[in-house]
Amino acid sequence: MKLKYFLPVLAVLSISLTVSAETLTVYSAGPKGLSRSLVKGFEKETGTKVNLYQATGGKIMSRYQAEKSNPHVDVMISSSLGHAITLTKAGELLPYQSANAAHVPDSLKTDTYVAQGAAVLAIAYNTRSHVPAPKRWSDLARPEYKNQLTMPDPAKSGSALTLVEGLTEKMGNDAWQLFSDLKTNQILIPGANKAALNPVLQGAKSVVFGAVDYIALGLKAKGESLNVVYPEDGTVLAPRPIMILKSTRHEKLAKRFVDYILSDKGQNKVAGTLILPARTDIPAQRPGFADLNLIQFDSVAAAAHAKTTKARFADIMGR
């Protein structure tokens, strides 16, 4: 009798160990705190172990490309929509649309990816500086901002590239003239987003053209002398796509992870970092979709011309 009772227990235990032994591998762009919080929440809810690699969007994409002959990643969260478009075009993503994506705008989801949330590109300025508070992108071409500006490099920042694409789509040659005027105003382009923000935080410069808003808003909340302006003439979203790789060996777990990120719990974690949550029914803890003048443009067409766009920008800036 004891043996008959014990064998089913062993069978259940064996099944449990098999399930818990599965490990999901996630490559995620920052912020680091959000990536870790989402992973811990998913692990707690499902009992699944997650192997997290957290880096910049460019680095996670490079790692994936380097491992392509023996892929490890199951789910990727990038800071660049262009990565999702590129991988979709290459046929490397698994089609999946979570039921939890019902309140995500159509512009932020396709059959192969969905936004975790989005940053918005803004003007961030040091409130201790003596320059006037700007209201429009074009304000920063005025003489009073000369030698006071920084901007992330579109060659190193996917969000900065998105801004250049959006402005050139809306303004045409006027946008390229604006960039030329910014060059005349001696704009500093030191690297990616943090490299552009640091001189303004330190007081060496006054204004960031194309700041990632949630980073600046977070620093302002911590007491930094920063203000964030959403230009009257419109700005762009920088969506953060979640993608399941077609090469995944853990399809069900990968889909559950996407479901979790788009759940109430997951989206509230996103909102808590001051990133705009993808779901419109989740309260944003910062200006939301309805508060912003957003430029709409064809991101797929823009991605196809990204190299040309980056090259033209670099040529104007003398890089």
UniProtKB/TrEMBL annotation:
Binding site for Fe cation: Y214
Endpoints of the signal sequence: 1-21
Pfam families: SBP_bac_6 (PF13343)
GO MF, one example: thiamine binding
One GO term of the biological process aspect: thiamine transport
GO cellular component, one term: outer membrane-bounded periplasmic space
Gene3D superfamilies: Periplasmic binding protein-like II
Keywords: Iron, Metal-binding, Signal
InterPro entries in the record: Ferric-bd
Domain of life of the native organism: Bacteria
Protein known as: Phosphoglycerate transport regulatory protein PgtC
Organism: Vibrio quintilis
Gene: pgtC
